[in-house]
Automatic annotation (TrEMBL):
Belongs to the short-chain dehydrogenases/reductases (SDR) family. SUPFAM superfamilies: NAD(P)-binding Rossmann-fold domains. One of its GO terms (molecular function) is oxidoreductase activity. This is SDR family oxidoreductase. NCBIfam families: PRK08264.1-5. Keywords: Oxidoreductase.
Amino acid sequence: MDINNSVALVTGANRGLGRAFAQRLLERGARKVYATARRPETVDLPGVEVLPLDITDPTSVKATAEAARDVSLLINNAGIQTGTDLVTDSLDAVRHELETNVFGHLGMIREFAPALAGNGGGAIVNVLSAMSWFGGKGSNAYHLTKAAAWAMTNGVRLELAEQGTLVTAVHLGLADTDMAAGWPVDKIAPSDLADAALDGVEAGSAEVLADQWSRDVKSRLPLTPEEFNAAMDRALAALIAV
């Protein structure tokens, strides 16, 4: 599909990657951009149409879908990371991440799929992570949710193919946002991530590996678990040492 003259909706558009998506959509000629956030008053980007949205609340998701029936491009960007491990930390926190990062995105897709079909098929972008493929101490709940979201994305792609809806999975390492502020390493600029994703949509790509980190991690998937973990330990040590 062509970004120019599209009607897009971005979740979590008040800051970070979501704001960058909304801005680049406008700059690339989108006819309308719905910028959504749980606190709509925090959206400060001129030129967007602001809607309140909590992706974990089915009533809120349904109301947003009814208000934006002209959408042809859905950007599922909103997400959380609680720093939770799976065995010793709060199970409620694990569930909260799953509700947001997996069921929140799936709920959006389910509500918007009929509108996308009615508007010619359109496209869905799910912002995932290189952590779809690896975990680590303090981030295993996040790894669980991103792995599940990757599987969900692959599943809905098959289910929505008949109605002509492209479903694009976008993976990245770290972006230069508030969430990654404590990591003194190379990070992809939010605008570059948005452009990589939107270029992928225009090319009809099912998957976008937006940076070298995500490409390197995925290239290690054929390894055995022992080999993969050892390779990731070396890569993370080198990254931190830099």
